[in-house]
Design brief:
The chain is mainly beta. The protein folds into 2 domains: about 120 residues, Sandwich (Jelly Rolls); about 100 residues, Jelly Rolls, CATH 2.60.120. Helix content is about 5%, strand content about 45%. It is built from 1 helix and 22 strands. A hairpin with a 3-residue loop joins strand 3 and strand 4.
Length: about 240
């Protein structure tokens, strides 16, 4: 993770740690903040989807005392995790967010929990259409605290994106469904088959090994079905662009 110095003297870094994939439409990142690690201030110039794969307890930091007092007034934590004892926010695994890009400076944070903060972060570089200008913040905690559900779960949707989680045990398959252009983050990898059917009914199957933490681009068009014929569970986050 490289950082730069902005005119105010603050250290500024990218939006996440690892850039896994980029094209003209999206950037697929992985957030991976170890306990006790600090993440820099950063700018979100693009709309993005953030999906937590782990629980995280974090505290923000800002360059002024007033901003820090605002944070502390909203949330508090007593526990001293990772050798620290300060106010923080707990966010649970399976929380999903859509956050509009503002171009404003976003505060950095410190992971004050006992476990790494790991999350795919998908930036949508494709410009908004005229009918997408009013899209706003969106969050869902519907799966928090539940066992990871089998099959495809429609997590959230707005005028900009549709977000799905697909989880397949070995030998299982998802339903055949229409697809849009999509960014895919592989949470748990396996060997899969992708069955495709175009609008004329022509079919084909592609087999591939998908490794954990891979970022992939899937062009829309044909109907598709995933089948897991590897030895381990397969799980992905899919962000479709509307």
């Amino acid at each position: 993770m490289s950082e730069v110095q902005d005119p105010s003297g603050l250290r500024i870094g990218p939006v996440a740690h690892d850039l896994l994939f980029e094209n003209e439409d999206v950037k697929i990142w992985r957030v991976n903040t170890e306990p006790g690690q600090m993440f820099w201030n950063h700018y979100h110039d693009h709309d993005y989807v953030l999906f937590y794969t782990t629980d995280v307890l974090a505290t923000s930091y800002w360059p002024t005392e007033g901003d820090q007092q605002l944070w502390n007034s909203r949330y508090s934590y007593d526990g001293g995790a990772a050798g620290r004892d300060e106010p923080g926010i707990t966010t649970r695994a399976s929380s999903v967010f859509f956050i509009p890009g503002t171009g404003f400076l976003s505060a950095g944070y410190v992971n004050i929990g006992r476990t790494p903060f790991v999350a795919p972060l998908i930036e949508v570089k494709r410009p908004r259409r005229s009918d997408q200008q009013a899209v706003g913040f969106m969050r869902s905690d519907a799966l928090v605290g539940l066992p990871i559900p089998a099959g495809t779960v429609h997590l959230v949707e707005n005028d900009r994106v549709r977000v799905f989680q697909t989880t397949l045990d070995p030998g299982r398959s998802a339903d055949m469904r229409p697809t849009l252009d999509a960014a895919i983050y592989v949470i748990e990898g396996s060997r899969i088959a992708i069955d495709e059917e175009d609008e004329d009914g022509a079919q084909r199957t592609v087999e591939e090994d998908r490794l954990p933490t891979a970022g992939l681009w899937s062009p829309g068009g044909p109907r598709r079905r995933l089948r897991n014929f590897g030895p381990s569970r397969y799980r992905e986050l899919r962000v479709e662009l509307k």
